[in-house]
């Protein structure tokens, strides 16, 4: 027990001696150095916070630009392609292109072209694959066409 008490008394005496031996100028210098280190640390924390705030803003801008490009492509696909491709493009994004997108994708809005050319019953329309092709008259039509071009050139 005496040893423990002597140890604590020695520690206290040692602390008092070291404090009295160190000059007040050195203590002041250490306090100033500590204050400068704290200021630098605070500035560093502020710089890091500003960096991440700017990074967050730029990433948000990039994300918005990506959404704008995707929306542009999806609207173009709706207008220029069939409903199945349009639905796939919408499913790849957030699917929010507005009310006009649903109307444009509607299956009933895609109809095949109609043959509106006037024709007599039983005859083929102008959209028929063999419209205007007549095997008997093909040679005669070709000869007349060549003869007309020859006359025009002369």
Descriptive report:
- The structure is a single chain.
- With 154 residues, the chain is mainly α.
- It has a domain at 58-99.
- It is built from 5 helices and no strands.
- The protein has helices at residues 2-21, 24-80, 83-92, 99-105, 135-153.
- Helix 2 runs antiparallel to helix 3.
- The longest helix has 57 residues, at 24-80.
- The radius of gyration is 45 Å and the shape is rod-shaped.
- The model has no long low-confidence stretch (mean pLDDT 75).
Topology of this protein?
Blueprint: H1 2-21, H2 24-80, H3 83-92, H4 99-105, H5 135-153
What would a concise description of this structure say?
The chain is mostly helical and 154 residues long. The protein has five helices and no strands. α2 packs antiparallel against α3.
């Amino acid at each position: 027990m005496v040893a423990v008490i002597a140890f604590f008394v020695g520690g206290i005496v040692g602390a008092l001696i070291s404090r009295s031996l160190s000059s007040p100028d050195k203590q002041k210098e250490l306090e100033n150095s500590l204050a400068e280190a704290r200021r630098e640390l605070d500035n560093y924390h502020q710089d890091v916070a500003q960096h991440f705030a700017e990074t967050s803003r730029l990433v948000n801008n990039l994300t918005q630009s990506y959404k704008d490009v995707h929306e542009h492509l999806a609207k173009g696909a709706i207008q220029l392609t069939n409903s199945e491709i349009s639905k796939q493009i919408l499913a790849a994004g957030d699917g929010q292109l507005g009310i006009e997108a649903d109307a444009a994708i509607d299956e009933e809005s895609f109809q095949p072209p109609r043959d509106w050319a006037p024709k007599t019953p039983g005859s083929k329309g102008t959209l028929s694959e063999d419209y205007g092709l007549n095997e008997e008259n093909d040679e005669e039509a070709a000869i007349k066409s060549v003869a007309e071009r020859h006359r025009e050139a002369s």
